[in-house]
Amino acid sequence: MIEAYQLTKYFDKFLAVNEISFSVEPGKVFAILGPNGAGKTTTIRMLTSILNPTSGKATVAGYDVVTQAAQVRASVGVLTEQHGLYERMRGLEYLDFFGRIYHLSAEYRQKRALHLMERFGLGDALDKRVGEYSKGMKQKLALVRALLHDPPVLLLDEPTSAMDPQSARLVRDAIKELRQDARTIILTTHNLPEADELADKIGVIRRGRMIAQGDFESLSTRFVGPPTMELRTVQPLNGLVQAVGDLVTVTASGDDYILYTTPTPTETNTQVLRRVLDSGVDVLTLSRKSQTLEEVYLHIVQEDEE
Amino acid sequence: MDSAAQPASHSQTNISRFGDQATWRETLQNALVITRREVRDSFRDWRIIIPIFVLTLFFPLLANFASRLFIRLFEGYGADGENMVEAFLPLMPMIVGFFPVSISLVIALETFVGEKERRSLEPLLSTPLTNTELYLGKVFAATLPPLLAAFLGIFLYLLGQILGSQQWRPDPILIVQIAALTTVQGMVMVTGAVVISSQTTSTRAANLLASTIILPMSLLVIVESIIMIQPRYRSVLWYITGGLVIVTVLLVRTGARIFNREELLGRSVDELNLRWAWRVFIDQFKGKGQTGFNLWRWYRYSVFPTLRSLKPALYTIGVAIIASFLMGWYFSTVWTLPLQDSYDNQIILNNLRDFWEQASRDPTWVGAAISQNVRVLLVASFLGLFTFGVLAILVVIIPFSILGYILGNITYAGLRVTPFILAIVTHGVFEIPAIVIAGAAALRAGSVITRPPNEMTVGEAWLRAIADMVKLGIGLVLPLLIIAGILEVTVTPRMVELAIKIGF
């Protein structure tokens, strides 16, 4: 569980994070989106007790980030923006070093490191020097390091940024599994489809402020408007567009299709279907035209700019 | 994920072994985890290994050969061989030990700034290790390999001397002395490197700044060498060792204070921000929240509050001055001057009259009296800034030990003390407070980096302390010295003359 209340961070007179509040339940993934320099990394660093908030409060896994810093750091696994690996060490040796820091038993850290290395496709690189790893392999090793002590909270800064599509899929699947295991996860990313796929809740930070947060549905409705429905018919619509005009807002139409929005799709869609079928036109499909997170994100940022 | 990936209770870390709950033993164990990794990493770097290897194994052999050569050469010119051995041979192990230990500076800069530069520090900072554990772990890692190499080098050199043609049997105390000196030299360099590292983000910048350590240390080794070749004065090396221990303690204190997560991640570029520095300086000089400049308000809201905030330093200087005076007095009983044989009131009166006549003819005498004091206090302040305030105290208290010594001698000789006291007190009423204030401001400006206030960086704390020093210098010390200078030239001789004339 992570709870942040009006977290604020100044660097001298520069306001990096401005009264950010949010909470993340166990088993949930919270994606923080935002342009470079928005305050995402500073927020992660405050939640890791690396930086002290100038004001505000936060608890991570039940520990206060200021007064119980060591406990917070023992409870989180952090994938930092810069992986910061020791290039002269070998993969397994590197993990063993971090395992010792966390006081994991020799047997456990060996077993856990081997398992995670295999899990993330690094089984062949156990004894290779980290300097010889590819960029993606280094990213995976850094992620393994974050998972090594099996923390209840994961803070992942750009977890798939340097990975090829196959590796990125591997990591995304792993994050989903970790979520099922009731872990609390925060990830920051520029990859909006990834956030869409993984996040239960999304927060958008801009110039240090959390300008929007919520699940995708609520953000989409709030910033882009009601969802767009697409009705495709077998026969031409022939004036049916006007016939449903009192039920929905038609945004586009053609010979055999109509796009409309409605704030109450569950009730209205039935009525629309009934009218179309009653007029003797067969319905091919009625589907919701999905909005992408990118559209939603751009709307949010644009609205904030205005 | 299978069982290894998802244990029931998640974290396998025993949280009680970290932070405030950790025992000293656990703190040390945690630090040694860092040390082991760093040492192993250092030994994988040929840039570190080759110099250590050469300095440890080759240099002692060279030193052995060179010392034999020198002794034979001087014997050839008629020098006493035995005395030459006693004077010259102990010098070499000290040098042999210094070279490998100087590598500790390179390792320390690499360990602290190198990690910062490669951004490999953040994952470590994200672990439950405390700042102290990280700091200790890295200090040990930078100190231990070069120190062990230095001891091995010293051992090899001594072995060569003991088993070689000289058959030299060094005094065990001498070996302990050299080992202690080598150890503290290494500690000073490493702890100094940590302080330097905190002010830089690149190894290049750190290496440039490292000259501020290596140059004084090299000078110190030259001084130590001069002392070492004079067996009678070798005990002085213990004082140097003690002094270096104090410097190490101060540097550790500074390093532990500034080696923290906030400082390490807060600084991103090595930028000399002169505009910011000037703003901070002026803000402190004028006094917080003061806009414009009004002399009365400046004294009321800036100068006097600063003086009040200086209380601990004022007490320290006051106590040091009294101690110095008493020590001077004590030494007057050990080394007594034959004053009763040379003391003549008429000569003193004549001298005073000459002085008075010349001073009244030449007004620059007042300026000379003032500038002499200003010069001394400027030197004390400058030296204090770079020696944690230690040299500021020393420069300020030395005149008082001389006063104590002279007054002690006058009393011991049974002579009248009133003229002497009047010679000091008449202008000293103004001069002594000026000295105390200047000394206290310099002491704080020098020592503030060892413990800057929590909300300030080291740089800001230092700048503000320097601004306070300048403020008190201009606002109080200089006016007091001007008054003292005028009194010293115009009134003090008259007072002394009067006291002698009336036999008071």
What does this structure look like?
The complex is a heterodimer of chains A (about 300) and B (about 500). With about 300 residues, chain A is of the alpha/beta class. Chain A has two domains: about 1-220, Rossmann fold (3-Layer(aba) Sandwich); about 225-290, Alpha-Beta Plaits (2-Layer Sandwich), CATH 3.30.70.100. Helix content of chain A is about 40%, strand content about 25%. In chain A, the strands form three sheets. Chain A has a six-stranded mixed sheet, with helices on both faces. In chain A, strand 4 and strand 5 form a beta hairpin. By secondary structure, chain B is mainly alpha-helical. Chain B has two domains: about 15-265, no CATH class; about 275-500, no CATH class. In chain B, helix 2 (about 45-75) runs antiparallel to helix 3 (about 80-90). The longest helix of chain B has about 35 residues, at about 130-165. Classes of the chains: A alpha/beta (about 300), B mainly alpha (about 500).
Average pLDDT score of chain A? 89
- What's the multimeric state? heterodimer
% residues in beta strands of chain A: 25-35%
Distance between the termini of chain A: 34 Å
- Shape category of chain B: flat
- The succession of helices and strands of chain A, N to C, reads EEEHEEHEHHHEHEHEEHEHEEHEH
Major β-sheet annotation of chain A: 6 strands, mixed
Strand content of chain B: under 5%
SS-derived structural category of chain B: mainly alpha
Largest sheet of chain B: none
Count of separate DSSP helical elements of chain A = 11
| CA-atom Rg of chain B in angstroms | 29 Å
Q: Count helical runs of chain B.
A: 21
> What sort of overall outline of chain A do the alpha carbons produce when their principal axes are compared?
elongated
Order of helices and strands of chain B: HHHHHHHHHHHHHHHHHHHHH
Amino-to-carboxy terminus distance of chain B = 99 Å
Tally of strands of chain A: 14
CATH superfamily of the largest domain in chain A: P-loop containing nucleotide triphosphate hydrolases
* Parts with pLDDT < 50 across at least 5 consecutive residues of chain B: 1-9
